[in-house]
Amino acid sequence: MRWSSSGVLAGPRQDASHNDIAAIKDFTVVRHNGEWQVYATTASPSKGWNLAHFAFPDWAQAANARHTFLDTASDVGPGYRAAPHLFYFEPQKLWYLVYQTGLPSYSVSSDPSDPTSWSAPRHFMSSVPPIVEQNMGNGSWLDFWVICDTADCHLFSSDDNGHIYRSQTSLANFPNGFGNTVIALQDSNRFNLFEGTAVYKVGNTNEYLLLQEAIGSGGRRWYRSFTSGSLSGPWNALHASESNPFARSNNVTFPSGTPSWTQDFSHGELLRTNNDQTLTIDPCRLRFLYQGMDPSAGGDYIRLPWRMGLLTQTNPTC
Questions:
Q1: Selection from 108, 106, 193, 206 nearest residue 157 by Cα
Q2: Structure confidence by residue, pLDDT tens digits, 218-251
Q3: What is the CATH architecture of 3-313?
């Protein structure tokens, strides 16, 4: 894998009631109504984690887009909300915004370009599954991701402790009935399977691509990839080592005139070919929206200056 990165495309914006946002991160994106609709986590030392929306027709306009904060503008409301994931659930003709509140949560809307339209949070599950409690150690259950095939919907999640979990319900029963939680992938080194799980259907094939964020030997964030012929697994390593990564500082270049503004390639999403629950990607035209930050930054996690960037694959195989 080889990538070319944009410069910083967008950073945090403030308003009177959101005046200390240090970062914007955990981007989810769809193309709808002629614009890129982006939802993201905001990090505020005074308010904690919440969600924001911004939209723009072209990437060059992202930095100037207006930010709408869901804690005050919608029924999503205040409190801990983070790591959004947006898709259109075609059987119900509804948009779902999946996010974490301590539990896997979601809101629904008929129009993702209207950030005021989201419903109050509901939970996919009312408690942490025993298998997660038994394995997450000092980690946290987070980064929830929904993808469906023709029969079932699958809820993937991470624990910052070397495990990826998968829960399941039928397509007809979604969003209810998630259970049967299993460990989809695990590693004795928790930094190898840390967080940020994302799963996609690969074009018109029966293959699936799983991406997982890792923390590398130098402490920098990077992405590994795995493939399977089924959402139930098993998952086989594809680009999964520091010398052969999916996305890492050693396989990303910055074009002439673009500063090498980050060495972290963290919590991202591939741009999809559709918006529905199959989460389909074009393997011949991979683009990855990610969070990066100034390599010299440090300190409290909630103060880290995450910003938005876009990777474009430069060596597609088709």
A1: 193
A2: 999 999 999 999 999 999 999 999 999 999 999 9
A3: 5 Propeller (2.115)
pLDDT tens by residue, 152-196: 999 999 999 999 999 999 999 999 999 999 999 999 999 999 999
Contact predicate 135/163, CB 8 Å: yes
Domain range annotation of the chain:
3-313
Tell me the pLDDT tens digit for each residue of 262-305.
Answer: 999 999 999 999 999 999 999 999 999 999 999 999 999 999 99
Give the other-Cβ count within 10 Å of 73's Cβ: 18
Token pair for residue 252? Answer: 């990303």
What are the φ/ψ torsions at residue 303 (nearest 5 degrees)?
-100, 0
The whole-model pTM stands at 0.98
